[in-house]
Amino acid sequence: MRNEKFYDIIDVELSAIILEFNTEIGKRNIKQDDHKKGFAFLIWIMRRIDSKISNDDILNYITEGEEDNSCDFIMPYKGLDNSKMFAVVQAKWKSKKNANKATKGFTTVAKSTVSDFSKIARLEIDTKTIKNQNFIKNYKLLKKHIGSGKKVNYVLISMSLLKTQLYEEIEKFEDANNAVELINTLSFYSFLDLKKFYFEKHIRGRHNISFITKGNISEIDTKIPNTSQNCIEVDKPIKAYVFSVNSQVLYNWFENFGYSLFVKNIRNPLSSSNYNKAIKHSVLNDSDKFWYYNNGITGIVKSISFTPQSKSIDIKNLQIINGAQTIFSIYSALKELKASKRSSIGKKTKITLRLIVSSSDVLSNKIIEYNNSQNAIVLRDFRSNDDVQERLQKDFLNHTNILYETRRGDFVDKYKRNLLSNEKLGLLYLSYYLKKPILAKENKRFLFLNKTTSITKGLYETVFNSKTKHDDMLIAYNLFIMVERERRILGKKIKTIKKKINDKKKLSKPEKVNLELDFVSHTSYNVLAAFKFILPKLSTNLIFTKSRILNNKYIHIELVYNYIIQCLVELVQKKGEGFDAKKYFKSNGASVKELEKILTGRVTKFKKKNKSIEF
After folding, report:
1. Which class for 407: exposed (0-12), middle (13-18), buried (19 or more C-beta within 10 A)?
2. Residue 510 CA neighbour count, 13 Å, CB half
3. CA–CA distance, 158 with 193 (Å, rounded to integer)
4. What is the largest CA-CA distance in the chain?
5. Is the separation of the CB atoms in 64 and 39 below 8 Å?
6. N or C: which end of the chain has fewer CB within 10 A?
């Protein structure tokens, strides 16, 4: 999503916080709107660090104000590994007009803040001279925490873009404030880091993600009850275990980790399907027989450790590679129940859990591929974790309001209206930018097939490579929207005309002309290629800026569209009576070359005819 839209999302949430803490804001005599937003921003950050923090703790941890020693709050929290940590945070709120650009003088601010952070880290603050009671109280807690050798994260957050990542400042701070082990860490958090966190946590539904680590997904380390007496252990050639677990375990996994469980899976669970309904029905109505009905869950892990005497089995870096739909369906079924009934059914519903120990990406990818090759998987799912797909998704996130879907179920339901699949965009890009509309029509099924599988048919590397840009994809999509709009308008007219013919009514001259355009309904991809032929030969004024059709030039694009349709009609008329235009434009590669020849041969005539318009 564009930065402006993300700012608006945060702004709405901050407005709600201001209402919630209105009494406290009054006590602090905060009157200006920007200052109110700045105070609410601190609370927003604290709730990102610890989603369960109470309002009382929020107010106790805030140190912002007189003699705050350049930190707005000091708060304890639990890391993703459940260890106790502290965050020392300084936050800089910016208005909307400044959020989308780098802050002037930020390096100076950062150095000053880092200097103050260093004094805190080295316990050099003399609290006897300080009146800020919240700072004194939390500094004492922090001092005790530092004394026990536990981790502290120092963070400077700015609601703006950063010109530089200030790696030198980070290195200096961490070298000066850590003896042997890295206890004190420093990070600078920009507007884009906030957006990345929000995207992963709320739009992709990945719970196992730390705000402090800039939205990076942490490894999933978890435990299951020790049922090793009923365990099958495989030693060679690859270490693996098969357990029987109850569905409460799977419910807890999804509750705690969300879609982070499926990062290495080729697809996320689909929120609505017949299979989903069937699993939910089995859990709720036939739970004691569920083990017999279901194939089970498969995961890859870095390690598994337990002894016969252990109460639990430790699992490191868990990823579910088969059975995502089963876990999601079990979670959905149990979520609807009251806690007591959920626990009862959850413990009664058994399922097979197969865990394979692998630290090799190559081996893991093979296991993932073969575990999913017999299921209802589409080729695009296997490409979802490719570097080029991740890059394009990131580019769409940072520069557009479009969510680039790399696999089915990639985003939580409420955001799906802003979604475009890599399949749709890939086909449009193939038609427009690569000027291969026939391939896009005839070989859709080969879009995600790579050339190593089929040299002659594989299109994946042709469409998705280092030269593929999100801007070009979005231009193709914007043009396609216009082309489809015009096609639907024409389609309605032709439908009315055909009804008049059936009713044996006389057609007007314009209606006869429109009837001759019936074949246009089969040329949408051809028209996209035609745009690519003609636009560069007109003027840069017709090229797009920031992935959008220039509003004041939209009428010019429509003129070009009409010119393309005229050329299509001319091409068809040259073929004579009995010519099957629908079939020709659907599957004949020659149609593209002939259209290009007509289009480019008449550019001068077109420009002369429309000379009053400045292209």
Report:
1. buried
2. 3
3. 10
4. 100
5. yes
6. C
